[in-house]
């Protein structure tokens, strides 16, 4: 087991009340595995990754749980100890590359700096490695482009530079938070293909955060669906697509445009909106949007149940027996 998150709870204490952005979140990632976390905006995906990386900004705070990386609790480490792991054993690609690239530094200086902080190698070796990494992520004429400043590159190229920087120290875990959202479809596909190749080449694990189920289908082995900070469903990708259980997942899947669908029917949309975190509906968080809401759903919060390795948080499956996945 490479990463084991146990009952993570992350809160933001605001004047108007406490927002629980991530609640009762437990999952694992194995070496070489690609795990996707999917969910609408505000479901707690970025807060999860920032909690793991120890990069939460105030008033954000981990209020409970453990984040075990190779059995060591990252949450109990000092910032100094964490710094040794960040960018080295665990690295992260952020949603908007311009916010994490320094506009006044050349690309090569930023990647070399990162390499030399974490690896005992000479400046010359760091430059060679930088150019190799730029080549690996598919940047043409890498030796010349290494001298560019970030603003001289296109969005797709900058995302590749970020990826090169994240991969430069051979991380064991890469956290990629919406790595393709800002990119057009062709470049999205190239970046996903790149992550896939890097996983094969370096046997690294990837936590892939996205709101796009199409990306999940293409790239991930396993998927977690989050809603209002909680896991509502978790399964192998093929099982989730073959038999989605939670009404929220069913809604998300029905909202994906089908390329081969030539009918002019309108795309399904889950009714309503994600609730205000300071004013959650009582009972199941999804109850005010759920077509299958029952009396009990507005009173109690369902537990996450494991049905033959497919997990779901919904009363429809409360009495599910071994091998019996269909709802009552
Ligand atoms: N700085 C903050 N102050 C207060 N609350 C915050 C802050 N950052 C996040 N939150 C709370 O945490 C929730 C989850 O935020 P998060 O950024 O993890 O969402 P997300 O799933 O990454 O969404 P997106 O798809 O838009 O990136 C938000 O809805 C908000 O209630
Ligand atoms: S517990 Fe009830 S409201 Fe919640 S998703 Fe299941 S059926 Fe819908
Ligand atoms: Mg986010």
Automatic annotation (TrEMBL):
Question: Per its UniProt record, what SMART domains does this chain match?
Answer: AAA
Keywords assigned: ATP-binding, Cell membrane, Membrane, Nucleotide-binding, Transport
Q: Which GO terms describe its cellular component?
A: plasma membrane
Keyword Transport: yes or no? yes
* Molecular functions (GO terms): ATP binding; ATP hydrolysis activity
Record's Pfam families? ABC_tran (PF00005), oligo_HPY (PF08352)
* Gene3D superfamilies assigned to the protein according to its UniProt record, in alphabetical order: P-loop containing nucleotide triphosphate hydrolases
Q: How does it sit in the membrane?
A: Peripheral membrane protein
Q: What is its main location?
A: membrane
- The organism's superkingdom is given as Bacteria
Give all residue intervals belonging to the ABC transporter domain.
Answer: 3-253
Q: Where in the cell is it found?
A: Cell membrane
Q: Name one GO biological process term.
A: peptide transport
Q: Which InterPro entries match?
A: AAA+_ATPase, ABC_Ni/Peptide_Import, ABC_transporter-like_ATP-bd, Oligopep_ABC_C, P-loop_NTPase
Q: PANTHER family per the record? A: DIPEPTIDE TRANSPORT ATP-BINDING PROTEIN DPPD, OLIGOPEPTIDE TRANSPORT ATP-BINDING PROTEIN APPD
NCBIfam families linked to this entry: oligo_HPY
Give the family, as the similarity comment puts it.
Belongs to the ABC transporter superfamily.
Q: What is this protein called?
A: Oligopeptide/dipeptide ABC transporter, ATP-binding protein
Species source reads Desulfosporosinus youngiae DSM 17734
């Amino acid at each position: 087991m490479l990463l084991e998150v146990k009952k993570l709870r992350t809160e933001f204490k605001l004047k108007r009340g406490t927002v629980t952005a991530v609640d009762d979140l437990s999952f694992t990632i194995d070496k070489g595995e690609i795990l996707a976390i999917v969910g609408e905006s505000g479901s707690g995906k970025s807060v999860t990754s920032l909690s793991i990386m120890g990069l939460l900004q105030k008033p954000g705070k981990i209020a409970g749980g453990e984040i075990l990386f190779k059995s060591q609790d990252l949450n109990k480490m000092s910032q100094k100890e964490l710094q040794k792991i960040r960018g080295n054993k665990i690295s992260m690609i952020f949603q908007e590359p311009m916010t994490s690239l320094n506009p006044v530094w050349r690309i090569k200086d930023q990647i070399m700096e990162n390499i030399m902080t974490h690896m005992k190698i000479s400046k010359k070796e760091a430059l060679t490695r930088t150019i190799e990494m730029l080549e690996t992520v598919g940047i043409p004429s890498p030796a010349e482009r290494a001298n560019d400043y970030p603003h001289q590159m296109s969005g797709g190229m900058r995302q590749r530079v970020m990826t090169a920087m994240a991969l430069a120290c051979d991380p064991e875990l890469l956290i990629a938070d919406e790595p393709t959202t800002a990119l057009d479809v062709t470049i999205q596909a190239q970046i996903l293909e790149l992550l896939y190749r890097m996983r094969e080449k370096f046997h690294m694990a990837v936590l892939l955060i996205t709101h796009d189920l199409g990306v999940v289908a293409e790239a991930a082995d396993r998927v977690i669906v989050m809603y209002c900070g909680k896991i509502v469903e978790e399964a192998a990708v093929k099982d989730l697509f073959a038999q989605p259980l939670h009404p929220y997942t069913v809604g998300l899947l029905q909202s994906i445009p089908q390329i081969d669908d030539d009918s002019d029917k309108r795309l399904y949309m889950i009714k309503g909106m994600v609730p205000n975190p300071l004013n959650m509906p009582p009972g199941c968080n999804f109850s005010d949007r759920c077509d299958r809401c029952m009396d009990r759903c507005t009173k109690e919060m369902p537990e996450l149940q494991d049905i033959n390795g497919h997990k779901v948080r919904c009363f429809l499956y409360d009495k599910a027996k071994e091998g019996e996945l269909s709802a009552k």
